[in-house]
């Protein structure tokens, strides 16, 4: 069964070797003692995760935990703060992120109840090394280790560590790197607002109406462009930027790698038992960016820069505005047919300069710059790229041609050279601590991975991590069932005009998403080799669609359809996934409390209105539904081990249902059946949400596991109540097992017997009522504080 869950006591329901159907499965309770350790994972030559002890293929499905980990405790991106507070980056603390330790089991068990078996665990460079270079926050590290130990004790979850960043740092409008890295690069963060070197929500005059996704435009603003170019390519393109005797590239990379390695080393020293069974690996930097590499003409906006929001300067314009020269900059907005110019705006009327004014930061952090890199001087002018006196661009193609070899530099060059070289150093540092840990390699977002097939950089503990977001849903915050855009096709420059990338009709949109993920998987197999698993470590849909309409009327139909389309795409390509995201502090007004994003699967504000904290219970609840009046009762286990398995709330019809799912949005799209362990290889996996029907086909000839190993399928009982489902299988026997943490169907099918098929759906009478019953069950039980919706569904 799911690794780490109680071993059940059950009786098999026999079925014949030929196609057999059984209805009204008996509900089996789980024995609550004897918690097992998580199984050790490995991989096979076909890019599958494999349970080492049995050889069964395993699907990793889970969520990012937790978006609040991007920010120090008690800080958000939407509250304006004075410069003395916001730019006091040394003394911040991430202790308490993502949530108090005493609340951990509530969130962990909710995640397990979704059928998830994997957590992408978010940390940041800033959280570890915010005080200064080489000064690690041991209190934060100790706190995080304690949380990882709790997750380990909870059982049933694999974890990999994500050193997260977005557009470099909190101080450049995102998250990730500590403040001192900006000073090390020679930039003054207090000048970002007037120079527009970065858009930061904390500086916004109207943070609640902060422009949708404008934070992403920071990748095309000079602060983030400079920092990423220095981090990955400083030696090549900023060779004169020497700090403490080494190039800025090596200085920044060395500290980043050392900080993550220190964290991982402390974890191994303090809690070695969590490694491999729970913490299975470490990911490389989240969403690495190429900075300015590949810009062919710094006086022009690149043709392939589809992301143009608000002011969209050329690099040359940014150089002027960031050197105190006001400049009229075009403004843009995003349309279905690509970016559209809306006007222009004068930037930096104040004449502020981006670069540091004095050596205060250098003295504070003990930076010793080479005499050629003077404080307050523009590094671009230092390297002859432009002349600030003549306002002339001297080398418009500076970042498109290698200065030593003359080789053309583009995104492919960056990925196969700069990114790979950094990854090799990073991998060496992590593997020096634990040679058997998985390395989760993440190339730039939605780009083709590096060509490393048969390279020593790749081994059987390497995972290719990809991110996928549907561009139209992301930017417009809506699920348009009439038309959409082939996002990946545009990025691969498949269309001469975005209009040709339009896909019409919801059925074709779903197929397009599936096709895009399939293409990403094929690119991975071609460039990295068939043995490297592909894991989508981020994907999701915004919940604040349609101007937050669902928050007032309770109708999450759009979000459900959007997430169902993603699930359809993932399952159709047999991909493992960790959804973005779970946010323990999510609320309707501020979403994930970071740049007005709202992706959390769960929200405090979607809990039932009758939520009552004094009825909190640590008891494991086992729910039954009476077929005549649809009321619930609870059976309470007396075993103390239930404290490790489930924390949930009791249900009473008069007072409302306080289940572990309470507050989950679009639950029917999240609680999806899927093959957790497979004795064979998945050939086809389909889930019809509307018809409540799941189909799985397995190639039983490709079995390298024990003949006693069973295929195990997560079957969420809130959708497929065991008393109402019908199962058809081509061979073998099966049994359903369920509590709040475990809801699986174990299938003992024939092996070495060709394709094996199983279908799980509601019995005929219940299928007709599935939509009504399902919504009724989810109505006030899960997000049911909306009376108008209740009346419609009754």
Strand content: 15-25%
Using DSSP, what is the number of strands?
35
Give a short account of the largest sheet: 8 strands, parallel, barrel
Give the termini separation: 37 Å
- Radius of gyration, in Å, reads 27 Å
Global outline: globular
Query: What is the architecture of the domain at 57-293 and 409-601 at the second tier of CATH?
Result: Alpha-Beta Barrel
Structural class: alpha+beta
The pLDDT mean sits at 86
CATH domain topology of the domain at 57-293 and 409-601: TIM Barrel
Q: Looking at this structure, what is the CATH superfamily of the domain at 57-293 and 409-601?
A: Glycosidases
Q: How many helical elements?
A: 21
How much helical structure, as a percent, in the residues?
A: 25-40%
Please give a structural write-up.
Helices cover 27% and strands 20% of the residues. With 794 residues, it is an alpha+beta fold. Among the domains are: 20-42 and 673-767, Immunoglobulin-like, CATH 2.60.40.1180; 57-293 and 409-601, Alpha-Beta Barrel (TIM Barrel). Strand 33 and strand 34 (743-748) form a beta hairpin. It is globular. Belongs to the glycosyl hydrolase 5 (cellulase A) family. InterPro entries: GH, GH5_C, Glyco_hydro_5, Glyco_hydro_5_CS, Glyco_hydro_b, Glycosphingolipid_Hydrolases.
